[in-house]
């Protein structure tokens, strides 16, 4: 194990504030749930999610397209569709203006598909993240209107914040229809129509459609039926944008995943092949971890427009080439993220907020890196790319620090700024970095924020290992698709033993455990925690995990996916046989003394006590540590004089020594002791102690290195010697520190 890896070893402590549900459910509900073939665990989870009545259970478990809301309940839908149909009838040129993420790509593709079906003359443009920015861009609008003779612009997944560009278009005789789902600004643009589920004048019953969901509702209104063949795109965009997977979104995604599994889109088929998707097991995780990241990678690093041909085109050769290019972009994105992440780790400080910037960082991935750092350090993080004195990038924040509110009051420090409570985007001058940092720290102080407060993690139930099986996973899957507001159920796992702990994956980044409770053994995987194999091997822990399965060589087994972990009691780390550096900032016991460090909740026993007085010092330190809620104790336990290997001297060894020295009136122990040790076959270390015992019992006297036998000494037992008595205790103490499990050492040190 490398030194660099050890430097990152940390205590096992929960990143979140665990909230275990305590829900009592009635026998009547269990009977109803049983009719739907739900086991008790799944029934409890369903009840926790507010599904109580039989009709609600039916609707939740069997989402139906018949329960989609009337699209004309959306604000301006009638006006928008009327204008679009008029444009098609008049042969007007239409521009669909999308966004560079997966939601924007799929929304534009859905809108294009609907207009194509109606025979429209429609082009699609997805703005470039770096040259156009987010939302309506005035230069792009002017180009298309002047050079492409565009008569109507339809925005998808953007628009409500496009005041300047939309005002110009409307003033120049080009209508703009906004279809969007983002936060409504104080001043809406003067668009011809605004279709938005949260519009203040909207009567729409569901407020949380994704951009692609709004586009699909427009398609439904235009086509006068729900085009189910588009639902694969709707599912991708909805899952990718992490909107609430309840109500209408649950219906759209549930059916969309079925369509995706049978998709005839050549581009999607090729992209999923590159992603290694199992077409027989398409779930929301397929989209979230395999499809959406690839689409987003294109928008993060390059021109996003090839995605439209990928998602709507039918040319298999072209689809293959685009899918290959997108997959390569995703690999490139991963490498860039890893490089920036490692560089950022080395730049972290002890300050309560982190503002990191570099001239070589790619601004398209800084939000991803900021999110990873936030997970690791639990502090607000701003990641910025520097270019010609201007910094552009993203921020991510903990739940207890509203980064939008903290910085919105200081807009004068920014060239551009926007966001919400836990995420923001910004552009600022390099010279304002310290002022921004001061504003954030002042916000903490002025609002008396507890920055150690953790975000809550909702846990469905406690589980014993023998309570769960592959059939449990199958039963819980009836509650899918999982996502925002319907998360994959998490369970608290306790009272197990770690049978095996090892790192795995690229650069050994991930951790794999084999845990056992009673006779049941289960594997558990913890991503990005590969460096903690030693801690998990030795510490008593508890886990929060979701249930999963792992198929290998035709066999399928149950597997836990760990989301968080915590140590139980003091974490005891045995490093006696490990060539590992110890944390120098901790409290360190060495040479019978305790040296205090800045890591007040960590104790390192670097050396075993040299005598009983040293043991008393260590016992007092450990006792105080236990009462002060200590977190970790390292047991290095170096032993300078290894009496546990020599023992305290046998009766036969003492007899041999006495017989040997009795033959000499005087013996020079300064120069001849080693020879005597070799002759008697008694370790030199023990021989010195035995001679001191003889001196204490007055069998010999020592003066200036000359040992003289007292032939008139009284007969006494070796056990009468206080030196011998202490030596016996030291031998037992050293045996404990050298050979016993660290839990036994810890318990012994706590005893008075």
Automatic annotation (TrEMBL):
GO annotation terms (biological process): DNA recombination; DNA repair
Protein name: Single-stranded-DNA-specific exonuclease RecJ
Similarity comment: family membership: Belongs to the RecJ family.
Positions of the RecJ OB domain: 463-564
Organism: Lactococcus lactis subsp. lactis
Keywords, comma-separated and alphabetical: Exonuclease, Hydrolase, Nuclease
Record-annotated Single-stranded-DNA-specific exonuclease RecJ C-terminal domain positions: 602-747
InterPro entries: DDH_dom, DHH_sf, DHHA1_dom, RecJ, RecJ_C, RecJ_OB, SSDNA_exonuclease_RecJ
DHHA1 domain: residues covered: 352-445
Listed GO MF terms: 5'-3' exonuclease activity; nucleic acid binding
Domain DDH residue range list: 93-238
């Amino acid at each position: 194990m490398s030194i660099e890896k050890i430097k990152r070893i940390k205590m096992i402590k929960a990143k979140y504030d665990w909230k275990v549900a305590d829900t009592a459910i009635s026998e009547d509900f269990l009977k109803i749930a049983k009719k739907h073939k739900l086991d008790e665990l799944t029934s409890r989870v369903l009840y926790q999610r507010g599904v109580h009545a039989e009709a609600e259970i039916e609707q939740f478990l069997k989402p139906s397209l018949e329960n989609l809301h009337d699209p004309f309940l959306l604000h301006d839908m009638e006006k928008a569709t009327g204008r679009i149909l008029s444009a098609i009838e008049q042969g007007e040129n239409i521009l669909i203006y999308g966004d560079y993420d997966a939601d924007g790509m799929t929304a534009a593709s859905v809108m294009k598909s609907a207009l194509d079906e109606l025979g429209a003359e429609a082009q699609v443009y997805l703005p470039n993240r770096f040259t156009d920015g987010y939302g309506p861009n005035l230069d792009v609008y002017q180009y298309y209107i002047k050079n492409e003779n565009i008569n109507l612009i339809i925005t998808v997944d953007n628009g409500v914040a496009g005041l300047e560009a939309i005002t110009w278009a409307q003033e120049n005789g080009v209508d703009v229809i906004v279809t969007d789902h983002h936060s409504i600004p104080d001043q809406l643009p003067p668009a011809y129509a605004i279709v938005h589920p949260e519009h203040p004048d909207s009567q729409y019953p569901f407020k949380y459609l994704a951009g692609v969901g709004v586009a699909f509702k427009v398609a439904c209104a235009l086509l006068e039926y729900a085009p189910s063949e588009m639902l694969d795109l709707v599912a991708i965009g909805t899952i990718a944008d992490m909107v609430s997977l309840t109500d209408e979104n649950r219906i759209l995604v549930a059916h969309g995943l079925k369509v995706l599994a049978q998709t005839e889109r050549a581009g999607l088929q090729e992209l999923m092949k590159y992603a290694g998707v199992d077409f027989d097991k398409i779930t929301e995780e397929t989209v979230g971890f395999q499809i959406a990241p690839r689409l987003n990678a294109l928008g993060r690093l390059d021109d996003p427009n090839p995605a439209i041909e990928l998602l709507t085109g039918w040319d298999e050769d072209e689809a293959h080439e685009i899918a290959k290019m997108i997959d390569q972009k995703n690999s490139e994105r991963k490498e860039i993220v890893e490089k920036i992440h490692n560089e950022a780790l080395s730049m972290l400080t002890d300050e309560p907020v982190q503002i990191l910037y570099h001239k070589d960082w790619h601004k398209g991935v800084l939000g991803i890196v900021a999110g990873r750092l936030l997970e690791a350090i639990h502090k607000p993080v701003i990641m910025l790319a520097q270019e010609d004195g201007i910094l552009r990038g993203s921020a991510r924040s903990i739940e207890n620090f509203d980064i939008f509110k903290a910085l919105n009051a200081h807009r004068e420090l920014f060239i551009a700024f926007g966001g919400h409570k836990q995420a923001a985007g910004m552009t600022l001058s390099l010279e304002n970095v310290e002022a921004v940092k001061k504003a954030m720290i002042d916000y903490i102080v002025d609002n008396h924020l507890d920055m150690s407060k953790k975000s809550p993690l909702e846990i469905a139930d406690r589980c014993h290992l023998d309570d769960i099986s592959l059939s449990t996973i199958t039963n819980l899957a009836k509650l899918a698709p999982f996502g925002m507001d319907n998360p994959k159920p998490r369970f608290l796992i306790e009272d197990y033993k770690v049978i095996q702990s090892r790192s795995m994956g690229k650069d050994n980044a991930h951790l794999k455990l084999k845990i056992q409770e009673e006779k049941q053994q289960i594997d558990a995987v913890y991503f990005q925690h590969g460096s903690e194999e030693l801690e998990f091997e030795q510490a008593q822990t508890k886990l929060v995990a979701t249930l999963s399965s792992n198929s290998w060589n035709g066999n399928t087994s149950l597997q836990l996916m760990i989301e968080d972990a915590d140590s139980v009691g003091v974490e005891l780390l045995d490093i006696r046989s490990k060539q590992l550096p110890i944390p120098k900032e901790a409290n360190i016991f060495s040479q019978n003394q305790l040296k205090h460090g800045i890591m007040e909740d960590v104790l390192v026993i670097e050396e075993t006590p040299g005598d009983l007085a040293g043991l008393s010092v260590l016992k007092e330190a450990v006792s105080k540590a236990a009462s002060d809620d200590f977190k970790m104790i390292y047991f290095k336990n170096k032993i300078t004089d290894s009496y546990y290997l020599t023992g305290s001297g046998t009766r036969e060894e003492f007899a041999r020594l006495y017989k040997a020295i009795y033959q000499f009136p005087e013996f020079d122990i300064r120069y001849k002791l080693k020879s005597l040790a070799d002759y008697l076959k008694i370790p030199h270390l023990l021989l010195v102690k035995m001679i001191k015992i003889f001196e204490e019992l007055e069998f010999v006297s020592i003066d200036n290195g000359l040992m003289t036998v007292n032939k008139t000494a009284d007969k006494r037992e070796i056990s009468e010697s206080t030196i011998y008595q202490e030596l016996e205790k030291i031998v037992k103490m050293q045996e404990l520190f050298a050979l016993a499990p660290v839990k036994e050492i810890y318990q012994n040190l706590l005893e008075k």
